[in-house]
Amino acid sequence: MSKLTDHKVLVFDVYGTLADWETGLYNALQPLLTKYPASEAWTRHDALNAFISVESDLQSQFPDMLYSDLLAKVHEVLEERLRVLSGEPTGETTLAGKSVPTSPQDTTGGASTSAVVESNSTTHWDAHKAFGASIQNWPIFPDTCAALRRLAKHFKLVVLSNVDRESFRHTHALLSEGPSWDTVTSNRDIYAYPSPNPHKYWHPQAAEGSKSPFTLILTAQDTGCYKPALGGFRSVFDYITEQPELFGDIGLAHGEEVKDKVMSVAQSLQHDHEAAQQLGMRSVWIDRQEAVTCNVSAGGPGAKPKWTWRFETLAEMADAVEREVADSEGIS
């Protein structure tokens, strides 16, 4: 049977696995939920399920929309649904192909959905935009940062996340020096996407002063798709092949492929583990027990597991890796 340490590259989901996106989302939704009678009594479970149903639909419709804009659109759609459920008047429907305006008069922008109904009030636009920008306030799980540093001693770490570059800058700083802003001593700009970027993708450790544990970062903005689409994973495989100097010798034996040395590490069964299974990758399920979303396989109860290893925290995974290393070195 294969071991964790048979692999050389770990591909991380971020939000839900390393960052507590559900708490971040739920906190950011509070002004909206308390505004309408229909959602005043919603539980955390109700709110997150309502969010994920809209988000999944918009991600599949608009794979090239920046995630911060997509979040704003989710907020907009949810508000319109809550207006209807609360018996309040609705606004005017926007034309398809437009993003959240910066003001009621600004109707330029990128992709949208004809199902979205927008308000004529600047207050509404500001609320949608604020929700889209809330990523920077999403907390990091307390075990994450130390575990990443431990794992980086044994693997090359890669981010593959349904996020945009600018939004990830804040999370990147926390993952590198956090888990809270109290422990981040460097300028946050060190953890921003380089401009100009001399590489095809984001090499975070190339920035002077960077303490990033990651060798490579790919956002949905880079790959042009949202997981569970397979394009992002395939981009990682291709880049490992194209950039051997970045990843070193991954130890391919005769007949092995890059995917055999790469492992997905994620909480979401739908977004990551099912995709990994389709590609023939092994995966580690970080089963955050408090999670409401993304922890039910599309196969339903009794279906064959989509993951190879399971841990409840990233720290538990790091412990298991270190035990394997110690066993291989004969250390008691």
From TrEMBL:
It comes from the Eukaryota. InterPro entries: HAD-like_sf (IPR036412), HAD_sf (IPR023214), S-2-haloacid_dehalogenase (IPR051540). Residues 100-118 have a biased composition (Polar residues). GO terms for molecular function: hydrolase activity. Residues 88-118 are annotated as: Disordered. Keywords: Hydrolase. This is Haloacid dehalogenase. It comes from Hebeloma cylindrosporum.
